Please model this.
Amino acid sequence: MKKRKLFIIVAAAMAIIFCCILIAVTKNESNYCDTVTYNGKTYELLEYNADILTYSYKSNEYLEIDEIHPAPNEKWDAVYFNGDIFIEESQVKKATGYYSDDNNYNWFAVIESDVGEIKKPLSVTQEELKYLYNMENMKRQKTIVFDDIKHFASIVKESKDGFIFALTTIVHCDNSWYWKTEVMTDDDREYVIPLPETICKKLFDVMK
Model:
């Protein structure tokens, strides 16, 4: 009887300790996505506008995963960790404002061709930007298969300080250009959203 009581007490104690460890680990993991500590300083995650582009650190250097690396920048004290940029906590608000402002970016069209990639500056008006940033909310009607695609391309924006770049994939088919949503139908077709006619014309001009 005493042994059984002792076993129950030990098992209960171990369960409590395990739960405490699990809670602590879960808490650290959830916080670790938002902040990192490097050389005794706290850095917060740099967040970007929620739009159709994918934002990344613009660097050609290979950076190991699960390791924090300095990310040189003239304005910000920044580090890189697992695909994300973190800014020193006292600077993150200003940095977020800077990278949220489209006036701080240059735009490009990058089109795949038989002779390699063609990259040229792309002028984007405020009206076109409004359309681009709303495409994710537009009704999805047109679908394509891979064989419908004549060319792949990207609309790219690069921050003027050379620190951040963002891109989204577009495709040329049916004599027009479309945003590639990556959303598939049940019969393995992909939804695409048409780009504004003005941007389509600019993309065809890049190909000339």
Residues 1-13, 15-32 have pLDDT under 50 and may be disordered. Helices lie at 2-32, 92-99, 126-134, 197-207. The first helix runs from residue 2 to 32. The chain has four helices and 13 strands.
